[in-house]
Amino acid sequence: MPLIKEDNIGVISFISSTILVVLLTSILGGIFLRDQHRHFQEDLQKVGTNFFKTQKERLRSEVEMQIRSINAWHKSARQRLKTTIKARTYEAYAVAENLYEQNKEKRPEEIQALIREALRPVRFNNGRGYFFIRDTQGPFVLYPPNPKIEGPHVKLLPHQDRKELSQKINTIIFTKGEGFIDYQWPKPGGQVHELFEKMTFVKYFKPFGWSLGTGEYLVNFESLVQEYIIGTLNSIIPSDTDPEYIFIYKLHAMNGGNEFATVLVNPNRSDLIGKKISDSFKDIKGKMFRKEMLQGIRDTGNAFVSYWYKNPGSEEQGLKLSYFKYYPEWKWIVAKGISLDVMNKRITQLQKNLSQETKKTIRNFIYFIVISSVSFLILGFIFSKGIHRLFLGYKAIMEEQQHELERVNTELKIQSITDSLTALYNKGYFNEHLEIEIARSLRHGSALSLLVFDIDKFKDINDTFGHLAGDNVLKELAHLCQINIRASDIFARWGGEEFVVLSPESEIKNTIVFAEKLRRLIEGYSFSIPVQVTCSFGVTEYRDEERVDSFIHRADQALYTAKQEGRNKVVFR
Fold first, then answer.
1. Is 437:506 a contact under the CB 8 Å cutoff?
2. What does the radius of gyration of the chain's CA atoms come to, in whole angstroms?
3. With bands split at pLDDT 50, 70 and 90, how would you rate the model's confidence at 383?
4. Mean pLDDT lowest for which of 17-21, 88-92, 458-462?
5. What confidence tens digit (pLDDT) does each residue in 158-172 have?
6. Residue 148, class by beta-carbon neighbours within 10 Å (0-12 exposed, 13-18 middle, 19+ buried)?
7. Residue 81 above 90 pLDDT?
8. pLDDT > 90? residue 1
9. Closest CA to 499 of 509, 508, 507, 484
């Protein structure tokens, strides 16, 4: 009996359609599952690699940002000293002037004694600072460290340096009435031949022909600055919820040793602060990680080192990755670390999320295959139309799933190049495109300008209104600037309250005009806090064949100059 005949053509059509559907869905399903598995393995590896790389770059960026802050304090020590000794001298002058006005009826000798004894006991700068008074003819009227040399009848041994200093003082008060003097001078109790840079401010007290003033050694003032920085960083206590912190060593021996450094900052180990440490110290796994750190400092000035160390907020030890960088001006090693256990947990969670997303995609695909197959079995008699519908539906879902995977990958990529707070590009993206734009500028001979700016007194905003208000200011500032830059400009958050704009094909004169426009917009903008927010700007233009760090450094220096010259201004170099 023939199988193919008109009576069972429907069955044959149904069976043929079923076989065709099974074959087609099996082949396409296998291809889909194979591609899903391959993409999943690739994405799984990228998640861990990209996150680890991002965290390393974050550590590097935060340590370098801290060093820039320390360097700014270092560079501003002289200006701070000038401000301090000038203010002190004005205070003493006000006391002398007040006593003189209130006692005019008395004899000059009595008024002079009142002024002298009122200023004699005054001390500042941890007891080192004092006021002195000199007669324009040379003798000391007031010299608290050694009252024996006071008075017109005291005969001091000839001293060329002392004579030159007296001449400088008289020149200033007779020509300007007041001013600063820089000179080299031995410290009290030290070696006479060992000289240190000292700064003095003097002011002319005309009623008695006096020069009144005070001075300080620059190295002593720098010590006060260092103490402030150390105290501030030690006050930031880490915890198990916020375990990251800055720590600092004072380096004594670059080649190591049992007392190669002193711990200046370590909020996690307050028992070590002020103590000398050895490079032979081993972690719980026997690793002498300080030797590895010193080797990196000697070779390149910085080092990434992993080791076991005490976790903040507990006595347990965990695996840690730290970045160390040398600051030679003060012989400091500045570092920050991150718990690898915490980082691995984050990577595991990201991978888990990716795995769940992939499983969901495969599960939905399987549901689709089952439902589609059953539907075709039921609707076999409309095989030709049904198979077409199935193919179109299958293709649509495949595209949807592919778009979903692309979306996940795009989000991961965006996260790796975007600052999470301001939604601007991050430092890593900026550095990558800086190299590209420099190469393009050299290739086409076009201009390339760089603009660096940060918020003036941002720490005061955080201290006064809280860090949440500070974050809102950063976001508002980012939005305000974003809508005013060119589409071709690269605008990124450099770190903290600092931002950068890279302007291809823009000469420095145009970039200065643009920077001034931004400065005025920011100055006049009503932020969410009840105080005026301003920014200081540093602008520069790329010079042929120069190094990237020189390009950036010049813009940073212009920014620092803007800060030193009063903030809320644009400076170019």
1. no
2. 36
3. low
4. 17-21
5. 454 567 778 889 999
6. exposed
7. no
8. no
9. 484
Per-residue pLDDT band for 187 (boundaries 50, 70, 90) equals confident
Residue 61 has pLDDT above 90, yes or no: yes
Domain boundaries, the chain: 6-63+354-408, 78-222, 427-572
The CATH code that applies to domain 427-572 is: 3.30.70.270
Instruction: Residue 144: name the closest of 179, 188, 88 by CA.
Output: 188
Asked if residue 66 lies in contact with residue 498, where contact means CB atoms within 8 angstroms, the answer is: no
DSSP 3-state percent helix, strand, coil across the chain (nearest 5): 55, 20, 25
Write out 378-393 in H/E/C secondary structure: HCHHHHHHHHHHHHHH
Please state, in angstroms and rounded to a whole number, the distance separating the CA atoms of residues 293 and 306: 10
Catalytic amino acids?
Answer: 497
500-514, pLDDT tens digit by residue? Answer: 999 999 999 999 999
In Å, the largest CA–CA distance within the chain is 148
- 286: three-class secondary structure by DSSP: coil
Rounded Cα–Cα distance for residues 143 and 139 (Å): 10
CATH of segment(s) 78-222: 3.30.450.20
Instruction: Specify which residues 32 forms β-bridges with.
Output: none
Instruction: Calculate helix-pair angle for 340-378, 383-417, nearest 10 degrees.
Output: 170
